[in-house]
Amino acid sequence: MLKSLQGRTLAIVDTETTGTSPNYNQIIEIGILRIEDGVLVDTYKTLIKPARPLPDVITSLTGISNAELDDAPSFDEVALRVRELLTGAVVVAHNARFDYGFIKNEFRRLGIPFNAKTLCTVKLSRALYPKSPHHSLDDLIQRHGFQCESRHRAFDDAKVL
């Protein structure tokens, strides 16, 4: 573990969303792994029902369908659990600005303030492998020989990180 992260609480997070704008789009799936002092202490994954139907391109990318989301909880129904897992943790995500922006905006829509420190694994990869031209999650999976059961599914992508 990186020395500066020793004794830290991390929340490794990935989200799947209805699009690319955290101001307009919503989270449809979230996966979280909470690590305290280097030990995995909790995990969480859920689909989340958005206010609008999914675009076909998102279904094609993630495999998540509108029918699967019909019985899923809304973000307000899972917000307290998500907040519990993220509170006091450094939020670790691949392209952290994206996932953190969506989480922050989902809380904002509910009138719940949320702020956290972040660690972006894209930036970390660039720092550790400056000669590598590519740092996507697919590139990291290939470079390190990681296995990912279902790419573009929040919990499985978070497990890779």
Q: Short description, anyone?
A:
This protein has seven helices and five strands, in the order E-E-E-H-H-H-E-H-E-H-H-H.
Q: How many distinct folded domains?
A: 1
Continuous helix count: 7
What CATH architecture label applies?
Answer: 2-Layer Sandwich
Q: Given the helix and strand composition, which structural class is it?
A: alpha/beta
Q: Using the coordinates above, name the CATH class.
A: Alpha Beta
Tell me the fraction of residues in β-strands, as a range. Answer: 15-25%
Task: Assign a percent range to the helix content.
Answer: 25-40%
* Sheet with most strands: 5 strands, mixed
The third-level CATH topology is Nucleotidyltransferase, domain 5
**What is the name of the CATH superfamily?**
Ribonuclease H-like superfamily/Ribonuclease H
> Which series of helices and strands comes N to C?
EEEHHHEHEHHH
Radius of gyration: 15 Å
Strand order of the largest sheet: 3-2-1-4-5
- Residue stretches low in confidence (pLDDT < 50, at least 5 long) are none
Shape: globular
* Count of extended strands: 5
Mean pLDDT across the residues is: 94
- N→C terminal distance: 13 Å
What does this structure look like?
It is built from seven helices and five strands. It is α/β, with parallel strands linked by helices.
